[in-house]
C-alpha cells in the first residue's frame, strides 16, 4: 500500500511537470511567507519538502563524489518536434507535443517531455554558484519514474538553444505583463539537436523535484561541461516571471550520507568499464 501511494504521488508529480501550471495552484514562492523554508507546511502534499531525506539540489563536492566504472554513457538522439513555450509561473519552460527521444538508465527508457530553466543555478559545483541551470525532464512510459539531465551555465557567449527562442521569449514577456499568467507561445517544430552532443562526464545521484511537492526518487544527471549564455538571454528567462519567482533556485539540501557517482568517458574503454 505504501509503495502504491508513493508511485501514485510520483505519477501525479510527473504529469504536473508535463502540463502548463495553473497559477491558482502555485501557492509557493521563493521569497516571503511562502518561501522554500515554508514549503513543507503549505500543503500536506508538500510534506517531503520538509521531511524528505533525499532532497535536491545539492553541492557537488569532491569529498562526496565517487567514480562508478559501471555507469554508462547518456547517449541521446533528440529529434525535432512540435513544442510550446510556456510561462509556468515559477520558471520558463518548453513543453514537447510529440516524441523527442529517450535516455536509458538502469535498463529503463526515459522520454524527454519538457525542459525549463532556473536562475541562478540550483546545483553547485564545489560551492560555486552558476548563473543558470537547464533541466531536461524525462519520464518512463508509465509516468512513475523521473530522470533529469541538468546543465549549468556561466555568463559568456549566447547559448544556441536559447538563441532559437529569443523572439518568442519577448512575446511571452509581453503576454505575461498584459495579464496572461498562463501564457503559451507556439514554437512550431523545435529542434534540440544541439544538445545531442556526447557527454564526456556527468554526476548522478538520487534526489527529488526542486519545486513542490519535492517528490523523491528522481534520478539526477548533472553534465560536467558548463554551458554559457549571454546577459541578455539571462534577462529574457527572468522577464516574464513575477517578483516572487525572479530568483527561482531552491537552497541547497543536505546529502544525508548520499554519494554522488561520476561517469567519465575514456575513448579506449567500452561502456561501463571506463577508468579515471
Give a short summary of the structure.
17% of the residues lie in helices and 30% in strands. It is α/β, with parallel strands linked by helices.
Describe the structure.
The chain is globular, with a radius of gyration of 18 Å. The chain has helices spanning about 1-15, 40, 50, 160-165, 165-175, 230-240; strands at about 60, 65, 80-85, 90-95, 100-105, 110-120, 125, 130-140, 145-155, 185-190, 200-210, 215-225, 225-230, 260-265. It contains 6 helices and 14 strands. Mean pLDDT is about 90; it is low at about 1-15, about 20-25 and about 270-275. The protein is of the alpha/beta class and about 280 residues long. Strand 11 and strand 12 form a beta hairpin. Helix content is about 15%, strand content about 30%. The strands form 2 sheets. Strands 2, 3, 4, 5, 6, 8, 9, 10, 11, 12, 13 and 14 form a 12-stranded mixed sheet that branches. Strands 1-7 form a two-stranded parallel sheet.
Amino acid at each position: 500500500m505504501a509503495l502504491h501511494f508513493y508511485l501514485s504521488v510520483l505519477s501525479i508529480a510527473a504529469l504536473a511537470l508535463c502540463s502548463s501550471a495553473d497559477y491558482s495552484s502555485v501557492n509557493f514562492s521563493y521569497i516571503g511567507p511562502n518561501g522554500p523554508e515554508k514549503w513543507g507546511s503549505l500543503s500536506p502534499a508538500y510534506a517531503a519538502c520538509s521531511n524528505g531525506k533525499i532532497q535536491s539540489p545539492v553541492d557537488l563536492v569532491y569529498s562526496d563524489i565517487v567514480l562508478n566504472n559501471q555507469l554508462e554513457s547518456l547517449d541521446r538522439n533528440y529529434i525535432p518536434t512540435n513544442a510550446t513555450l510556456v510561462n509556468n509561473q515559477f520558471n520558463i519552460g518548453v513543453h514537447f507535443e510529440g516524441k523527442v527521444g529517450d535516455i536509458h538508465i538502469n535498463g529503463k527508457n526515459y522520454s524527454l517531455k519538457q525542459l525549463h530553466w532556473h536562475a541562478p543555478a540550483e546545483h553547485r559545483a564545489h560551492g560555486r554558484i552558476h548563473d543558470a541551470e537547464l533541466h531536461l525532464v524525462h519520464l518512463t512510459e508509465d509516468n512513475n519514474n523521473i530522470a533529469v539531465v541538468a546543465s549549468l551555465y556561466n555568463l559568456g557567449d549566447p547559448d544556441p538553444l536559447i538563441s532559437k527562442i529569443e523572439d518568442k521569449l519577448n512575446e511571452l514577456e509581453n503576454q505575461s505583463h498584459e495579464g496572461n499568467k498562463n501564457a503559451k507561445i507556439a514554437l512550431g517544430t523545435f529542434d534540440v539537436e544541439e544538445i545531442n552532443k556526447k557527454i564526456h562526464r556527468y554526476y548522478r545521484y538520487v534526489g527529488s523535484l526542486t519545486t513542490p511537492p519535492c517528490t523523491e526518487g528522481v534520478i539526477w544527471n548533472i553534465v560536467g561541461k558548463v554551458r554559457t549564455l549571454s546577459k541578455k538571454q539571462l534577462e529574457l528567462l527572468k522577464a516574464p516571471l513575477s517578483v516572487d519567482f525572479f530568483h527561482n533556485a531552491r537552497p541547497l539540501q543536505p546529502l544525508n550520507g548520499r554519494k554522488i557517482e561520476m561517469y567519465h568517458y575514456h575513448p579506449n574503454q567500452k561502456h561501463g568499464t571506463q577508468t579515471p
